[in-house]
């Protein structure tokens, strides 16, 4: 068997010193490592093959999801970060232990009062369009992300804590906060940077070749519905310390083909039409795990599990008893085994177990799969009637909970998963779970009107940024507060976690929040932990996952056997 695995299981334990160390120690110069076998840039958790890397060749990668925008600052699809990271980079790279190392910033420091962040910008970095990355360029990026005409969410997100952004000299950026904000370094350190000239382009929000980055590959062509092409950036020489080599990429060119149908995608790999694929259904993993012609890798993502968020503003999901009953009516272990053949990890919390700091393991096994409890709750809530199809009713109205799955975000058999949940809640509790796969515009309309019962979602931003996105009120930065929860207690916990870099204290606040939103209030129902799978020809080396975030990495360290 020629397989490798970065699969994570269970609780990884807290690392109370990691963030504090990252915030109080200035990152000095980059320590570069030259390695014989390759992992992903900012990765190294899994790689295929060994040997001496050789330059040249073109890689073709079959991917499940096409970007809705190629602008890395506006794209919210986790699955497409794999593509965009080839061209767009950030100030810092993050290691598995949660600490940071230099990338486009050669160093950084945080003041004793934790209000001033100073970055030294790396010398010699250029964008594709020939412009230089300097302090002024970084400040321009930050101010543009704050501009509501460019980014409607920027001014109410993590950057809302920013008081000023100044290029104090050609290579120094000084960022001053209004108040302490612990997740700030993760957000600003991972902000993808683009050439200031790109903001003047008419198609800047759609992104593409006119939006220049600094990455090891230049985005050269986009054919909608078909592929995204990159060519080597021959001048590239500023990879982070977490990369496996320095200098230009090994590959001459790179093509990502959009193959949303898993049978087509996997067939293309087996027939040699593509060299690598991501997004392997659990029922089809074994064929790659047991075949020496391929390598197969998986890794759990950080961030928020794939979950159903109950809309608390509209009946029937405004009733906590209905939310709890829905959750208890599902034998989730059986569902996941059926849909994914045992190849996915059940979720229990609002945080992934891959998160090295904030996952609350105590939630495991504390709820669900109790149809007697589900039916008792629905009786108490007044849903005591039954219609001709066996669904519960109250005052002549059927107990219907609707989910509008947005088609561009449906991946990893999630439509099949919700159909299995649909069958369970009908059989075990008489709930009509109406799942509709719709265009993103239709889904957005229902969300804007709060006209839905559940909203399905996962997200991979780690740390407090992701937790805040889901549980702060929308007006305070809760961009994906899909349950519409406005409970003041949530804001109290989140504010406490924002204002301290003591990881143990932050974890205490986040643990209380997780217990509250999952078990006490059932604002969301976690289903499974998102993971990424990579199957590749054995002639492909260096594919792998980013450290800490565990998303598939760019092709910077990838090379091909002759």
In short:
This protein is α+β, with helices and mostly antiparallel strands and 562 residues long. The protein has 14 helices and 24 strands.
Structural commentary:
The protein is built from 14 helices and 24 strands. It is globular, with a radius of gyration of 23 Å. The protein has helices at 18-24, 81-84, 135-146, 184-189, 262-270, 286-289, 320-328, 332-340, 371-380, 414-429, 440-448, 463-471, 488-498, 503-520; strands at residues 58-63, 92-94, 100-102, 105-110, 116-121, 162-169, 172-177, 217-223, 227-232, 253-258, 276-278, 294-300, 304-310, 345-346, 385-386, 392-394, 397-398, 400-406, 432-438, 454-459, 524-529, 531-537, 540-541, 559-560. 24% of the residues lie in helices and 21% in strands. It has a seven-stranded mixed β-sheet, with helices on one face. The protein has a four-stranded antiparallel β-sheet with strand order 4-5-7-6, covered by helices on one side. By secondary structure, the chain is α+β, with helices and mostly antiparallel strands.
Total DSSP helices: 14
Shape by Cα distribution: globular
Number of strands: 24
Low-confidence parts: 1-49
SS-derived structural category = alpha+beta
The radius of gyration is 23 Å
- Mean pLDDT, all residues: 90
Helical content class: 10-25%
How much of the polypeptide forms β-strand, as a percent range? 15-25%
Largest sheet: 7 strands, mixed
Secondary structure layout:
Blueprint lengths: L17 H7 L33 E6 L17 H4 L7 E3 L5 E3 L2 E6 L5 E6 L13 H12 L15 E8 L2 E6 L6 H6 L27 E7 L3 E6 L20 E6 L3 H9 L5 E3 L7 H4 L4 E7 L3 E7 L9 H9 L3 H9 L4 E2 L24 H10 L4 E2 L5 E3 L2 E2 L1 E7 L7 H16 L2 E7 L1 H9 L5 E6 L3 H9 L16 H11 L4 H18 L3 E6 L1 E7 L2 E2 L17 E2 L2
Parallel strand pairs: 1-10, 1-11, 18-19
Antiparallel strand pairs: 2-3, 4-5, 5-7, 6-7, 8-9, 9-10, 11-22, 12-22, 13-20, 13-21, 14-21, 15-16, 16-17, 23-24
């Amino acid at each position: 068997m020629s397989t490798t695995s970065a699969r994570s299981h269970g609780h990884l334990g807290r690392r109370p010193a990691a963030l504090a160390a990252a915030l109080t120690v200035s990152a000095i110069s980059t320590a570069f490592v030259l390695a014989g076998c390759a992992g992903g840039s900012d990765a190294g958790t899994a790689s295929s093959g060994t040997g001496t890397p050789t330059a040249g060749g073109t890689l073709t990668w079959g991917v499940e999801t096409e970007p809705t925008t190629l602008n890395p600052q506006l794209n919210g699809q986790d699955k497409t970060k794999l593509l965009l990271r080839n061209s767009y980079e950030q100030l810092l790279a993050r290691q598995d232990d949660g600490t940071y190392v230099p990338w486009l910033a050669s160093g950084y420091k945080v003041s004793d009062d934790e209000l001033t962040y100073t970055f030294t910008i790396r010398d010699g970095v250029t964008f594709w369009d020939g412009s230089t990355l300097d302090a002024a360029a970084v400040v321009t990026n930050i101010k543009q992300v704050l501009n509501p005409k460019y980014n409607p969410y920027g001014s109410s997100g993590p950057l809302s804590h920013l008081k000023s952004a100044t290029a104090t000299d050609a290579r120094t950026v000084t960022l001053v906060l209004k108040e302490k904000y612990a997740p700030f370094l993760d957000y600003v350190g991972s902000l993808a940077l683009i050439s200031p000239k790109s903001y003047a382009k008419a198609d800047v929000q759609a992104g593409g070749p006119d939006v220049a980055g600094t990455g090891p590959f230049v985005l050269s062509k986009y054919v909608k519905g078909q592929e995204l092409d990159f060519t080597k950036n021959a001048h590239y020489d500023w990879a982070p310390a977490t990369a496996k080599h320095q200098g230009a990429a090994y590959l001459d060119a790179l093509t990502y083909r959009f193959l949303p149908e898993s049978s087509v995608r996997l067939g293309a790999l087996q027939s040699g039409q593509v060299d690598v694929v991501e997004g392997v259904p659990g029922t089809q993993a074994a064929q790659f795990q047991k075949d020496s012609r391929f390598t197969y890798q998986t890794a759990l993502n950080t961030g928020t599990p794939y979950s159903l968020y109950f809309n608390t503003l509209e009946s029937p999901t405004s009733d906590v008893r209905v939310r709890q009953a829905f959750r208890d009516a599902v034998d989730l272990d059986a569902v996941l085994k059926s849909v994914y053949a045992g190849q996915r990890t059940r979720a229990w919390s609002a945080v992934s177990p891959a998160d090295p700091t904030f996952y609350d393991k105590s939630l495991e096994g504390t709820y669900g799969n109790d149809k007697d409890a589900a039916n008792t709750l629905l009786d108490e809530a007044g849903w005591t009637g039954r219609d001709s199809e066996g669904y519960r009713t109250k005052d002549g109205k059927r107990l219907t909970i609707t989910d509008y799955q947005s088609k561009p975000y449906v991946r990893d058999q999630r439509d099949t998963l919700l159909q299995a949940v649909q069958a369970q809640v009908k059989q075990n509790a008489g709930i009509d779970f109406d799942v509709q796969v719709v265009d993103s515009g239709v889904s957005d309309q229902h969300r804007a009107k709060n006209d839905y019962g559940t909203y399905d979602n996962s997200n991979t931003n780690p740390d407090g940024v992701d937790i805040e996105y889901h549980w702060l009120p929308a007006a305070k930065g809760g961009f994906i507060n899909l349950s519409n929860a406005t409970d003041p207690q949530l804001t109290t916990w989140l504010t406490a976690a924002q204002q301290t870099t003591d990881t143990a204290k932050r974890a205490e606040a986040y643990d209380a929040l997780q217990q509250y939103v999952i078990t006490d209030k059932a604002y969301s129902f976690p289903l499974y932990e998102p993971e990424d799978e990579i199957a590749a020809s054995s002639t492909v080396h260096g594919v792998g996952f980013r450290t800490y975030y565990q998303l598939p990495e760019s092709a910077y360290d990838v090379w091909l056997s002759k």
